Amino acid sequence: MPEAAGKRKAENEVNGEQPSKKGSAFNEFTGVFDGLVQDILGLLPKELPDESLAYIKKMCHYTCYGGKMTRGITVGATYADVARSRGEEPSEQAMFVAKVIGWCIEWLQACFLVLDDIMDESHTRRGQPCWYKLPEVKKMAINDGLILESCIFLLLKKHVKPYNVELYHNCVELFHEVSFQTELGQLLDMTTESPEGKLDFSRFTLERYKLIVKYKTAFYSFYLPVAAGLYLAGLTGEKDLELTKEITIAMGEYFQIQDDFLDCYGDPETIGKAGTDFWSSCQIGTDIQDKKCGWLCVQALMKCNEEQVEGIPKSVFESLLAKIYKRSK
Predict the structure, then answer these.
(1) Which InterPro entries match (predicted)?
(2) How is the chain split into domains, by residue range?
């Protein structure tokens, strides 16, 4: 079991946040991060050169550590709530396992974001250049995303399997299931445009939007951490999981609608999408630029007549540069 790392060194900080400024749940969760990274490095083949180990260590710190980490923290919170509802105190060992599973979710999140940024040609992530934008990374980020995903199963095998074999198998199945669902969501998102890359607003429907949100966001961001916490608490019944899925998908939809709004109207410093070059510093998010099937676009289309819809590509997307330039003045 890795020991709490204490205050993280400045060179390993991401996004300039000090854990001491957060609540105790955040501190306890982040306290095991460095130990888990060391676990991963220790499980790598011994013949790997030092530069490979250093690269993977940097990648884990750069891509996994940052943001509010609510996905990871939710695993322990779910387990603890269930335990206390039974009149039990959460055990220290189970809470550590919850942190491990929680960090596995953060590793999965990092995998998705690294690959998503490449596909979307994004510039920044959490207030810093996207991983693939670093000159020493570039296209290697594709393979890095796969390595990040593999780290999940190294950690589950090392820490969860010795604790409870049934829990380990449930978690492995859960991560595989949710990963595939999220990949389907990415497919739905990326194929909103026609194969020729032209805008096809017949695909920008509320039904498709909800489907994208359900598969791309809700399953891994909301269902996965709660379901993992229930598994840890011993709740594996189909009825419990189906009800959990229904509630968390609704929560995911609410979250994504809010995120779409903030992508356009949010404060860049608050939401971590401030840019470092002219293009990205003039905008907040890139949903409109990327022609995404977002909440704002879907709602606008629902209020448009056919003539107005035909005018949208020119009036919105082709004039985007001018609007961004005006915002930057």
Answers:
(1) FPS1-like, Isoprenoid_synthase_dom_sf, Polyprenyl_synt, Polyprenyl_synt_CS
(2) 11-236
